[in-house]
Amino acid sequence: xxxxxxxxxxxxxxxxxxxxxxLLMAELLEGIEDFLRLGKRELEISINRRMRIVRFDPAxxxxxxxxxxxxxxKRNILCTFYGDGxxxxxxxxxxxxxxxLFQRGELPPDTLQHxxxxxxxxxxxxxxxxxxFLGLELAQSGAVVVSGLARGIDRAAHSGCxxxxxxxxxxxxxxxxxxxxxxxxxxxxAILESGGAIVSEYPPGTPPLKHHFPARNxxxxxxxRAVIVVEAPDRSGAxxxxxxxxxxxxxLFVHEVGLRPGSGGGGIKLxxxxxxxxxxxxxxxxxxxxxxxxxxxxxxxxxxxxxDGWLPRCGSLGLSELMELELRNKVFLLDxxxxxxx
Length: 342
Known about the structure:
Largest sheet: 9 strands, mixed
Number of domains: 3
Structural class: alpha/beta
Number of strands: 11
Strand order of the largest sheet: 1-2-6-5-4-3-7-8-9
CATH architecture of the largest domain: 3-Layer(aba) Sandwich
Radius of gyration: 21 Å
Oligomer: single chain
Distance between the termini: 53 Å
Shape: elongated
Helix content: 40-55%
């Protein structure tokens, strides 16, 4: 690696900097030489805040970055840096994208629909089944399933995606060299074997600290065009992902299986606040298609053609109706989106 990527790896090791501050320093510094000359006071002036640390030793961060460079090369782990052409386009749009995205496997192309499926780590049996079948149906529709590999809803959605021979992206809250929880390791291997990816903003050796997981959730939603909350109690971490989804301008859906008193308190609140209720994956894809058409075609509401076909209104198609219309040759699927035939 040349001087600038090494700078980015060094900044990724500066844990007291926020993602936005890392991006700022990457913009201000020309290369690793500038970083090595950086003092604590200069850093405080650059980020416009006082730091609680007693000592700032940039040489130590560079040494750790050089160790990371050797480790990543040896283990064939990739790095995608903010500003690179291969950096996920949707993730680049969020308020605080990671400066470095560590990556195992292959990130699916941005042209595919990316849908996050999230929820509680302690789901009901019905919610667990719903998450699995969402992952399965999304995979069969050509969409990419994004989640966090946590036990419960995350793991079920990823399992369904692998079963449907689809591609998944799992976002970790720890270093890219490990998988947490341990029970998800076998599934992580299956995701990689299926052509998916495991990503993290944390360098190798970083433990799964509690505060990493809320930060991880912004990447789950940031990589996705839509977020489905399957089941979420009132204080579920999935609600943090839903907050990020709304801040990032993503479509937000709640599964009807998770709208039950007690186990679905958080989902009920989201539905009351306007999140679209769904039961099957096709409803999510149809909804996304219709809203994208509304954005792209001012004549959609009056029924004017989009050129490739007319798109259904959000929420207008359930799975059974969609299958019937497909059999009657009234609609067709293209890249996971539903189109009316003209």
